[in-house]
Amino acid sequence: KKVPKFRTMFSNLIHYPRYSLYWSKSDPVPPFISREWKGHEERHKEALWQLAVTDSFQMPKKVYEDPEVTGKNRYKYFDRPFLPFHQQIPLNVVYAATKAESYTFPPTSAKFLPIPSKSTVGTQTDYRDADVQTDPYSPEYVICQDSIPELLTLATLTWGRGLPAGQAEVEMIERAREKRAWEATLPPLSDASQLEKRRRMMNAMERKEWAFREQEIEKLQEIRLEVLKELLRKREENQNEVNMRHLNAQWSKLQEAKEAKMAQIQRSYVSAIRKLIGKGKNIEGKLERRNIIKDYSDYASQVYGPLSRLGRFPDNNSEDFVVKNHYLNTYEGLVELESCLPDFVTQPRIRPPKLKVVTTKSGFLKTTARFDCELAEVHQALLDKKNKVHEAKKPLRFLQRNPIPQPRLPTPTLQMSSNEEEDIEMAVIYLQKLLRGRVVQNMMFEGKEKRLELIQELRTSHALQDDDKLVKKAEKQVTLALQRQRNLHEHKVSLVENHLAGLEGRALADMFDFLSKELVRLQEERRIHAFAMLAERQRRMREAEESGRRQVEKRRLREEDQIFKEVIKVHQSTVSSYLEDIILNAEENTAEEQARAEIEKMAEEINDIAYEMESRRTYLQSEEIVAELVYSFLIPEVQKDFVKEKVRNAQRKHILAAHQIIHRHTETMVQKRATEQQQDEVSDADMLPEEETQNEEDS
User: Fold this and answer.
1) What's the confidence (pLDDT) of residue 395?
2) Residues facing residue 163 across a β-bridge
3) What is the pLDDT of residue 175?
4) Of 38, 186, 193, 350, whose CB is crowded by the most CB atoms within 10 A?
5) Locate the CFAP91 domain: which residues (predicted)?
6) Which DSSP letter does residue 321 get?
7) For residue 96, which of 65, 121, 122 has the smallest C-alpha distance?
């Protein structure tokens, strides 16, 4: 048993092991297992048999109950697991164990009701319910004479083409109602005076219908444009997503290559540094032998802490040394440990101190006792203060010099004695401001005097530039006049060009409008033709699918009929075999009863003869008979048992091989038998009503 050492529990060093081995005195055999010899029962049976042979003791015959494997207990020998998916699973058949002793079947009791061997598992409808059904059922109708129901105007609407009705169909129905109401208001053709009015009303209705049709076409075009925009946007988003995915994959690949390259460079760098350090330690290149004493004296050497890059991993299989204690890792162990602890650990008992005070019966302090306590506390405090001895100051154990900080300079302050001094101070400050301003003015005047000649020169140069300014002003006026004339001319030319461009644009717009309408008409015509071809192709494909489905259904019906016939045949063979088994069992029971009666009769006759012989024989004759019986019964029986055991041992290997060969195909046979049994039950359930009707007709 491994017992951990708490001081070196997490050590990986060899000379400091983390655990030690102790011989465990615990018994591996649990206490509930009996340690007695199990041969007493066999010896007891042998003694009983000897008594039965030598004495008139009758050994009780062991009677076994009928298991009724094919009867009411049949369900106990089958097991079907519950699985969440539909799959044909063979039944797990449990075979009854073979026993050497023969069974004595008791008579069948009538208190247990017979269990039916057949049950209804499912039903099959007579109506067709498949995906090939397209339009809902529409009943026939009869129209009354001289009546046109409004519902017949919607006969063109079918399921999937207008039904169930939406907003567009409702609007179409409302327009049809309005048109019928308008047709009712038209003047009759027989009235010649109202023909002009009828023509005007029809023209107005035709213009209204054409305007509605144009609005529908515009709506369809807008919807198509929106669909195209959405498709283009989705395609662009998908392309951007694919591009971003490719870029991310490429970036991650390059990043991984970069990290791998950096790791390789780092490893080579560390290796080179290590080699340089090793060469620096041994510059002369001398070979040195290993100093074992130095290695074992230095706890930082590779003896105690080997390097993993040299192939030594001290943490290998470290999980084998992990302490796995049942008492610490499981709740039951903790409960068992807690039960071993004494009561004062889990249930602490605290005794409150007893107060030596005078209290009343209800538990309250008396006033006199409270005053006595307060007086005692004050008296003790006074005594402590009076008897307090002043201790002499002890010398410092460690002398330290405290640095003295330099004194801070005093802050200047201004002391005002009265208001007059304050006014004088303000007057002095104002005078200082005036003097400073006068100094600045004098500095500016001195600078002006020094630069007087330069100022005069600048003034003369500005006076000479006045004539040039007048000339430039005149040139400017001439330039502005020319610019105005050019703007007027350009305005006139632009007006003429705009007029001509408007005429050209109107003509081009009409031409382009005609061409675009023709292009739209051709595109619509081609699209309609393509839709018609697609609809025709889809119709043919659906017809082919429908025909294929019908062929599959017909083939399935033929297969089901054939299966039904085979099931009926199997049922008939099963009934015949069942009746044969019943007849054979009846014959066997009858023969057994007759044989038992004959044996009892013969035993009575033999007993009578034996009693008569015993009454006549002498002692020597009885001894001779006993010796002959022992010799003729015991010795051949022992020899026969020995031969049987020898033959059984010789045939055991052949029996095992035969069992393996037989049971190799047993599972498939059992599965087939189960499926046939289910089919037999279904066919029997279907055939019972037919047999009953046939019996009624015969009767």
Assistant:
1) 61
2) 159
3) 86
4) 186
5) 123-275
6) G
7) 65
